[in-house]
């Protein structure tokens, strides 16, 4: 086990880097969307992660299959990240540890591109919902006619209108044969711009999307946080499988892409595009910052959301 109090690992704190990224949209070259001060990350380092399964290539991530919160197999090596954080795991993880099933969640739901996130009714984001919020104030869209082959990365890849708070993909229900999705932005202008693009015609896997404002609206969100995290640390600690297990301790998470930005001078930087800010990116950042040993070695922060073309 890798202990964080070993003197050999007491390296100086790395500077905080701001990834400079190409705006997201339907990319001409899907492998060329991640940049750090002009240095391109390898196309093979990107993949779509979903709870219960992989939605993309696992190149660079070992043979691990993410089967459920709190479990992992096929680790790259025997080193593990010691848990010294005082941060409390979110309610989904605590329910799973206690053997309490989350309402409505069934094993068949855990497929690439499907989240069935039910939310925490005590959370600020849930309480921020406004029934029948005026369109010009609404940051939330409800997408329909979403293909069954949808994955988080496919949906994020057609968004270039602004920072995304969260995406929830829903399975077909009742008479409907296609999926649906909630897409929540930080600004109402972003929602309006994406709705206009959908009305002009956005296709995913040959299926034309439809959209309207969500009747459970979300007002302007002034947060400076994003769903995208960078984690910078000593090279020997920066193995994807070990970080996946660390994430599992604190939240039930999904990510649309993960990237190795660099490995140099004994350090490495990872970038993870979670599918929501609250409960995923925010939770992991707080857990690391409250870990008395880990924060001596690791630098963590938010990156600009590539879905915002102004970045």
TrEMBL record:
A single Gene Ontology MF term assigned here is: nucleic acid binding
Q: Which InterPro entries match?
A: RBD_domain_sf
Superkingdom, according to UniProt?
Answer: Eukaryota
Q: Where is this region: Disordered?
A: 1-42
Which spans does this entry mark as compositional bias, Polar residues? 1-14
Q: Please identify the protein, giving its name as recorded.
A: Uncharacterized protein
Q: Which organism is it from?
A: Hymenoscyphus fraxineus
Taxonomic classification, please? Eukaryota, Fungi, Dikarya, Ascomycota, Pezizomycotina
């Amino acid at each position: 086990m890798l202990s964080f109090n070993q003197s050999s690992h007491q390296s100086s704190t790395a500077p905080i880097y701001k990834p400079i990224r190409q705006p997201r949209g339907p990319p001409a070259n899907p492998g060329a969307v991640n940049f750090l001060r002009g240095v391109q990350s390898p196309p093979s380092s990107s993949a779509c992660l979903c709870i219960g399964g992989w939605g993309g290539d696992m190149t660079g991530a070992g043979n691990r299959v993410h089967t459920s919160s709190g479990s992992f197999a096929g680790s790259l090596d025997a080193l593990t990240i010691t848990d010294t954080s005082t941060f409390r795991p979110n309610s989904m993880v605590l329910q799973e540890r206690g053997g309490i099933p989350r309402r409505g969640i069934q094993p068949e739901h855990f497929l690439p591109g499907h989240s069935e996130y039910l939310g925490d009714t005590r959370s600020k984001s849930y309480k921020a919902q406004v029934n029948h919020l005026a369109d010009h104030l609404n940051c939330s869209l409800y997408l329909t006619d979403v293909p069954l082959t949808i994955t988080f990365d496919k949906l994020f890849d057609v968004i270039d209108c602004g920072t995304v708070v969260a995406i929830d993909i829903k399975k077909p229900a009742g008479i409907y044969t296609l999926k649906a999705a909630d897409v929540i932005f930080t600004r109402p202008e972003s929602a309006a711009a994406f709705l206009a693009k959908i009305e002009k015609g956005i296709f995913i896997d040959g299926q034309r999307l439809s959209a309207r404002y969500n009747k459970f609206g979300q007002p302007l969100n002034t947060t400076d946080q994003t769903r995208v995290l960078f984690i910078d640390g000593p090279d020997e600690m920066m193995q994807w499988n070990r970080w996946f297990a660390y994430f599992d301790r604190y939240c039930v998470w999904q990510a649309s892409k993960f990237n190795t930005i660099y490995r140099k001078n004994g350090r490495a930087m990872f970038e993870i595009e979670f599918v929501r800010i609250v409960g995923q990116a925010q939770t992991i950042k707080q857990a690391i910052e409250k870990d008395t040993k880990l924060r001596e070695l690791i630098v963590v922060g938010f990156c600009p959301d590539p879905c915002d073309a102004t970045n």
